[in-house]
């Protein structure tokens, strides 16, 4: 993830140029960019493009009432402690708030966790983590700097074209027999 994401937010199209290398993992693509950077190659215009995206949801376990209450308690306790500390900074005489707000947060956290779980229990009684993965990561470079980037990375590429989704073959009606 880039530290300067705000600069490219308005750019909402796929990068054009030449695919200078393709990799199975994002880390390998990042290493290729680092290799270009280390060789003082042109970095401006380089892009890592993930292809064939898949949403993967990994199930981490079953949700029980106890787990839901404990998770809600921890979230509420943390939130209450934060509010209590902020309140104490604003009103130094209110030392009791350091203990009161975390306890209130704990109670409300348990309540909200249990109520939320009871509303979604029929549809979802498990915990999971989601991530988006790509089957392939292409390093794309502008036409004018692609040759140098390919040389530095040590791979051959091709023109970067937007790939259309696979469509089933069109069925042709049978042709009449030829006499």
TrEMBL record:
Q: What is the top-level taxon of the source organism?
A: Bacteria
Regions of compositional bias (Pro residues) in chain numbering? 170-179
InterPro entries of this UniProt entry?
GSP17M-like_dom
One Pfam annotation reads: YflT
Q: Biased-composition ranges for Low complexity?
A: 159-169
- Region annotation (Disordered) maps to 157-179
* Annotated transmembrane regions: 68-89, 95-115
Name the UniProt key words of this record, in alphabetical order: Membrane, Transmembrane, Transmembrane helix
General stress protein 17M-like domain sequence ranges? 19-86
Protein name listed in UniProt = General stress protein 17M-like domain-containing protein
């Amino acid at each position: 993830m880039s530290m300067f994401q705000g600069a490219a937010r308005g750019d909402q199209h796929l990068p054009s140029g030449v695919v200078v290398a393709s990799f199975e993992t994002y880390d390998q693509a990042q290493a290729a960019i680092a290799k270009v950077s280390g060789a003082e190659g042109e970095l401006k215009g380089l892009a890592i493009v993930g292809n064939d995206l898949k949403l993967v949801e990994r199930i981490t376990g079953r949700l029980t009432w106890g787990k839901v209450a404990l998770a809600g308690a921890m979230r509420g306790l943390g939130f209450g402690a934060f509010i209590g500390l902020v309140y104490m900074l604003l009103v130094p005489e209110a030392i009791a708030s350091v203990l009161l707000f975390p306890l209130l947060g704990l109670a409300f956290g348990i309540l909200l966790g249990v109520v939320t779980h009871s509303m979604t229990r029929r549809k979802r009684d498990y915990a999971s983590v989601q991530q988006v993965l790509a089957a392939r990561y292409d390093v794309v470079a502008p036409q004018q700097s692609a040759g140098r980037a390919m040389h530095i990375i040590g791979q051959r590429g091709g023109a970067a074209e937007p790939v259309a989704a696979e469509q089933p073959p069109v069925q042709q009606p049978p042709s009449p027999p030829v006499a």
